[in-house]
Amino acid sequence: MSGASEPVGRRASLLATVGTHALLVLASIAALYPVLWVLKIALQPGQSFDNDPSPFPSSVSLEHFVEVTSTTTASGGWLFGRQLFNSLAVSGLTTAVGLLLATSAAYAFSRFRFAGREAGLTAFLLTQIFPGIVMLIPLYILLDLMGLLNALAGLVLVYSTTSVPFATWMLKGYFDTIPKELEEAARIDGASSFYIFSRIVLPLARPALAVTALFSFMTAWNEFILAATLMNDASSFTLPVALQRYVGEYQTDWGSFAAGAVIVSVPVMALFYALQRHLVGGLTAGAVKG
Amino acid sequence: MTRTARAGLAALLAWGPAAHAGQTVVLWHAYRGAEETALTQVVDAYEAAHPDVTVETLGVPYEALASKLTTAIPRDNGPDVFVFAHERVGGWTHAGLLRPVADWATAPSADTFLPASLPPLTVDGALMGLPLASKSVILFRNTDLVPEAPATVDALVASAEAHTGPGRFGLAYEAESFYFHAPWYFGLGGTLAAEPPLVDFTSAPFVDSLAFVDGLQEAHVMPDEATGALVAQLFNEGRAAFVVSGPWFLGEIGDVPYALSPLPAFPSGPARPFMTEEAVFVSATAAHPDAGAALASWLAGPEAAVVRATVGRQVVASAAAWDDPALASDPVLSAFRDQLPDTVPMDNRPQMRDVWEPAQLALKKVLRGDASAAEAGAAAARRLSAITAPTPAPANPTPYLGLLATAVLGGLAVLWRWVAGVRAQGALGDTLRAWTWIAPAMAAVLVLVFVPFATGIGISLFAHDEGTWTFVGLANFRAIVTGQYFPLLHPLGFVYTLLVTVLWTAANVVLHLALGLFLALLLNRKGLALRPVYRVLLILPWAVPNYITALIWKGLFHKQFGAINGLLEALGLQGVSWFSSFPTAFAANLCTNVWLGFPFMMVVCLGALQAIPSELYEAAEVDGAGAWDRFRHVTLPLLQPALVPAVLLGTVWTFNQFNIVYLVSGGEPDGATEILISEAYRWAFTRQERFGYAAAYAVLIFVVLLGWSAVSTRLARRAEEAAR
Amino acid sequence: MADTGSASVQLDGVHKRYGDVHVVKGIDLDIAPGEFVVLVGPSGCGKSTTLRMIAGLEDISEGELRIGGRRVNETPPKDRDIGMVFQSYALYPHMTVADNIGFALKLRRTPPADIEARVREVAAILGLGDLLQRRPGQLSGGQRQRVAMGRAIARRPSVFLFDEPLSNLDAALRVQMRAELAALHRDLGTTMVYVTHDQVEAMTLATRIAVLHQGVLQQVGPPMTLFQRPANRFVAGFIGSPSMNFVDGVLASDGTGPAFSGPSGLVVSMTHVDAGAMPAGAKLTLGVRPHDLVVGDAGPLRGVVRTVERMGWEAFVHVDVAGTTLVARVEGPLAARVDLGDSLALAVPDGVASLFGADGVALGRRRS
Ligand SMILES: Nc1ncnc2c1ncn2[C@@H]1O[C@H](COP(=O)(O)OP(=O)(O)O)[C@@H](O)[C@H]1O
Ligand SMILES: [Mg+2]
Prior knowledge:
The structure holds three protein chains of three kinds. Chain A is an all-alpha fold. Chain A folds into two domains: 2-61; 72-285, MetI-like (MetI-like fold, Orthogonal Bundle), CATH 1.10.3720. Chain A is built from twelve helices and no strands. In chain A, α6 (152-175) runs antiparallel to α9 and α9 (206-222) runs antiparallel to α12. Chain A is globular, with a radius of gyration of 23 Å. By secondary structure, chain C is of the alpha+beta class. In chain C, strands 6-7-8-3-9-10 form a six-stranded mixed β-sheet, with helices on both faces. Bound molecules: adenosine-5'-diphosphate and magnesium ion.
């Protein structure tokens, strides 16, 4: 954190300081307002919302949270717990598998010069411009052929794969900034390729790995169109699919939806909070230095 | 993956239903609330009576259930039994998804079910499902305000006008929806035609019905842009004298004294609402057809019907159930049943679904005051003919197959020469070694991204109609780029939508970048107090899943309930009807997407700013550069390498930002804010499942983006070289 | 560290090609055990590439490499028994100094106690004792440099490879480290191959210098041989600071033997040179080092002082002689006195100058 937009060693004028804080407070309010508003709907009894612009609830009750979290399966099991577990497991495994695939590919793209490198990188980049919705039906058929329909493994496979190209590009950018000499030194010291990759490169790429993991996790955690199509019973739904039920054809249970939204958002927010230090460096190091 | 490994992985991860020794019957439905409770009770009772059978139920939202059934049943993944409204029966019968009732139950006699309930479930003379309950709208009134039910529409209007005042409305219902509007249309002499188009939007009854609601709107008898939630709120607060709604409304009424009565009559006849028959079906690919049939018969039978009526408040179709004293004496259910003779069952053919979009278009135009009744009717007729245009004629696949074969052979030849070239250089070993690192990722991406996309491209050469695929060559593309269905420069026309998409993308990316950079510069000021706090707050929007963001912002922009209008009103300004004009609807979409997207750019800018050594600023200052010069000549050029890829990616993502446009404005008004990807989605999933046409759209999106990326990366590279 | 072995390194017609780019064009070099050979040449001439081929970090396109008499073209770096110090040090930023030094030993599954002992020993040699628990980010440039050397030493390889290890240090530190490197070589007696573009480092450290230019070895020999008897014009110009003066002219004869005839009537007797069968009038270049030029009031070459670089006791003067600038060294009172615009006379004593043919190759010396 060495950079600065203002010359070092001099104090900014009082006016500039006040102005900066005023603008930042304004922006923070704008960023926070809709979030508080969801919280308000979630905490307020009743299923509708009102046009009172205050972002604070007029009365507080946890009934929506209780309702959303106490759903049960036909056999009396704790459905919400099951779905929470599904979401966590799918997102966690997606992150692990996606990261595994992406780090090894990114490392090869960054370090080796070989025939087909450019083509491979371009192919990965190309996937970012595929319009996803046309792939819905072919994907369904494909997973059916693989016998992975209605299986969380199918979701893990699809999510981790779709997150791989972007993750690969981001990690490659970061690997490019790690000096090659470090690995050469390790080779002379007698380390194997895998050892170098896992003990030298990966520890140094931690910020980028953290950010990539966050992105993969979010891909899986937030997705619902595919999950709703591929999953056939409520106990294998992920949370977003469960949440979708509160937004109905005839009416929306805003209170329950908001409570669900809060529950779904909290883990991602926590991750963002935990990783925000890495976020700034991990995202851009590749582009800046590379 | 080997079979065993695959099976092992699947077993590890498929926390699916545990296997049962007895038979497990799978039942899918879309019920919620009391209806779901009733269904569960009925199913429990059935299980208790049949210990060898386990029933596994799955509740899915209505639209999602339809698409799940359509995809799952043909591939043997569907349920044994499912509950659905009759509106899809025709299409599903032709697609072979349903087992005719004759195959699994004795034919019901004429008095087993209410007389209105069987015709909707009959296709070409065969009964396809057993009726459960009928749904139609009816007239609710606040008996404090209106003790007596009006018998005629004139009386209703007169009474409604008498109860209209500031903040009070005589009549509240979801006037923009054709489902709720239908009673006026049918009451004024409208019909569903025997052959498509099912509704003639230029006919006198339809135009008259538009003029009728236009009159109500002019007199302010009805609230603007009424949604179900608004209707419920007005009624519960005693601010609406009459409400037109269905059985689902019962659950939303608070402690307001109310009564139900049949819809009143025009001089030409009673106002007749649409009727939908909910029925239980046995799927054609049921794993346990017999057990399923037994369950289905039980669900439709009188015993279950009594529970569904008393607990689920359903207007059950079983005639015998009405002999139950609890039902016979129930004023609410009886009122609904009494409305049934004066209803119009929806047509069960797929063409029925084509009617909603044009009718809604006409209603919105009239209610907003954008068009006269006659003009609106004509616009609806044009929209209908566009989305129901016949599928293109079949094409001869031979030339395409030849082309494909040539391409494949050419590709193989290029690949072969490439491998030979690599081998000649003696680099085969290195290349193979590198590729072993990449192979897992590449294989996964090939199989799960490229293959589906290639399949999508293939689909674009076909037309899909009720489960049959016809090879039509490039006809879909021709139809899109020549504006065959919609004039190119009108909303929903390809060129218009492309321009909106470009405007959407450009506006978003510019705002993301401007806002992100600006905030990053503020955050990066030396010695800024509270920096971590600001940073966390400003990243927050990024952490909210974007479909949640979209729904929340849609709520915030709501005309009556939205906090944004609330804020405007608190400031003494007029609330805005955000989704009724292009600029405001576009602004609402833009606002939502800017809110959720600026943190990404801010973080990218922050990272890049921190990598700029402060010596450079000092050097520039010594050279006499002012704050602006330092920004212009130091900050910007040094940010460029980080910003170019972020902007390129951001552009692509925004171009295909489906969730926001679809969920916030939903294309309102009249499809004017639709972008290419949401338009493609509509063709595939909300119109007649024109998968081929939608795929052609997607291919065009791909081509546009490909061209754009090629040009922009070249420009970026040139700029980079020029900067050296 | 008495048990440190020391191996020979032999390059036999070694080439390196990157696709169509021919970077190293056939190097033959025999390095005896215990030698300190410095590979020197201008930036981009292929020094690092050559060193990296020795290390095994680059494949050898053609030719043979032997370490300790054994062909190692296909041997992976770790089995070549080498240690290497990189210009950027390449310290592992996430490990402590001790871990960095002990890394190679750890990979060899050396018992932890032995590693610790060896790390302490190395740290003592290099004066790193207090820094063992720090991370590279917390060290100064000179300290990092020492850690990098420590890492190479710890393994007791039989060949050390250095790629410009001192070029990231400031001038004073560079002089100090140069001395320490020389001492290290003395103490360890291990073969060292050292790459630099700085001829001062080459002169001070090497037992033998190999000059590389555009991928071709120009001359290999002890520092003073290269200095006094450069094999060609490139080596002559590259070795020695300030650079050798070059004057174009032709071959003449002054009766006693060959002579050089240059501009403004300059004639230098070249009896120590063997002109062979070269005809009179052949184009030649005379090379004479600044300290060999005799500066005085009288001499065959007269010119005007254009620049003076004062070093204290001595000074280098750039004298413009009829359009050619010659650099000469003056010392003592003259060094203090000489000033811009002064007119000086220069003379080339017999027996010190070198002659280069039109192809740049030095003419041989006559045996005396
Ligand atoms: N991977 C490579 N591909 C192509 N050319 C290279 C590669 N590595 C180095 N070169 C070229 O080889 C030449 C010698 O490089 P190097 O050995 O690093 O020079 P130096 O003598 O400065 O250490 C340079 O001209 C360089 O551009
Ligand atoms: Mg080098």
